[in-house]
Amino acid sequence: MGDSAYSFSLTTFSRTGKLLQIEYALNAVANGRTALGIAATDGVVIATDKKFGSALVEGEGVSKVEKVTDGSGFVYAGVGPDYRVLVRKARKSAQAYFREYRETKPVGQLVKSTASVMQEYTQSGGVRPFGVSLLVAGMDGDGVPRLFQVDPSGAYFGWKATAIGKGYVNAKNFLEKRFQEDMELEDAIHTALLTLREGFEGEMNGHNIEVGVVSKSDGKFRLLTPEQIQDYLDEAN
Known about the structure:
Elements: H1 20-30, E1 35-40, E2 43-49, E3 66-69, E4 72-78, H2 80-101, H3 107-120, E5 132-139, E6 145-150, E7 156-158, E8 161-164, H4 168-178, H5 185-198, E9 209-215, E10 221-223, H6 226-236
Antiparallel strand pairs: 1-2, 1-8, 2-9, 3-4, 4-5, 5-6, 6-7, 9-10
């Protein structure tokens, strides 16, 4: 009897020590649109491809980069509805923290609580893992810009720069060549757009790319407008 006999059970390990539903969730992530993040000396940028399958789709109401607290934001690759659930849970968790301590939840704690939610869905009957990986950008309690990745298993990692989704291998290779320890936020934004362009089908513009940044100067997370993104793309050209 091979591993396939265990593939429909979330809570049962296969004979080789794997939880196959988590591996299938990672396949869903790998089929998603590319998303990436870069931690600079003075901030963090996260960006993603927001290209639609049809020109008839009304894209104004669709957002893949979400502000979670004043100082942090999420982007994802994978199953969109699962992402909405995690964003809602993270916002509720951040509000509960604010009510108790009267300060914004540091990004490190936000990541841990979100990862705990994802881990619960790998160990409970009658549920399935979340089919998303997250990139989380924000300011930690010590004022240092941080970038984290959270996977469907509930594992989380800190990164200087990384990519998830379709084409993540090529994107990571590109980032490894371009990343510098002393990179500033403006350079990081340009590098993020150049990396997305490497695997982008068609022409990039301010409406089919989403970019979120958190700056060390004010500690606030914000989404760039389509006009601001277009300006960065024009500069790169």
